[in-house]
Write a structure and sequence with these properties.
Blueprint (H helix, E strand, L loop, with lengths): L2 E5 L2 H12 L6 E3 L4 E3 L4 E3 L2 H8 L3 E3 L11 H14 L3 E5 L7 H5 L5 E5 L7 E2 L2 H8 L3 E8 L9 E8 L6 H24 L15 E2 L15 H10 L6 E5 L2 E11 L10 E5 L2 E5 L4 E8 L6 E2 H7 L15
Parallel strand pairs: 1-2, 1-6, 2-5, 6-7, 8-11
Antiparallel strand pairs: 3-4, 7-9, 9-10, 12-13, 13-16, 14-15, 15-16, 16-17
Helix pairs in contact: 1-2, 1-6, 5-7
Length: 322
Amino acid sequence: MRVVFAGTPDFARVALERLLAAGFEVPLVLTQPDRPAGRGMKLQASAVKQAALAHGIAVAQPRSLRLDGKYPDDAAAAREALLAARADAMVVAAYGLILPAWVLTTPRLGCLNIHASVLPRWRGAAPIHRAIEAGDEHTGVTIMQMDEGLDTGDMLLVETLPIDPQDTTALLHDRLAALGGRLIVEALELAACGGLRPQPQPAEGVTYAHKIEKAEATIDWTRPAAELHRQVRAFDPFPGASTSAGDELLKVWAARVADATVTQPPGTVQAVDAGGVHVATGQGVLTLTELQRPGGRRLPATDVLRGFPLQPGQRLGAAAAG
């Protein structure tokens, strides 16, 4: 089976590597254009592009696939490349571009998407983050037959995974990426023998995983400690939960809900000890256990405090400026 692959980040790279290991022929990879990254803001190829080049696969990087859009030349060149690939199917994983109708119908078996949730919950851009943030106990991967809607296509294969109470987006991402790679191989093998049984998504339970914005990173200490704990986990590795402490902005990379009583207004440091920084919230106490100062590294809170002492009674967040 000839399979065109469309994807950009590491989540997609795992699936591409799994397809190649399973013996599928991948004549063409579509991925996002190189982007500036790192301190030097040098152009950097996506994880998928790097993997494709390492395997000697042709790569196309259109800025758009809409023939009547802003970059018609990019779309036309991509169309020519896709037609020349003579693909039986196209696999899409975290690609980042909308696929118009001409793309969806070009491969003989259409386009199969690897989506990191159990649809119809968490359609959209950030299903892993939002599942942790919402406190979901389970998530999973859906292999979906793509249509022109936003993650609305028929389900082909579904498998669930439990979300551990300490999971971060980084940890859960890796398990879901591995699951997605395994399921897409199974789906294509079933497709080859006509064994797929598409099922419409349930009408009930639709939620949308909106893109993560940097503005969401700021910790609102009036919220309950349990919600803030989920926020910290959901925003690791991006964008990282943060709070002001005096004139500095601290990143909070790890925390736990403390077995303690709130005795101070939200955002107040109630205690500092070997276990971390205990901060009052709107409901309960959150203990900060891993922090990062501007320009520094992620470190245990006790290490950060050696050069940046936080004192009981000090106010964090918006209250710090008051």
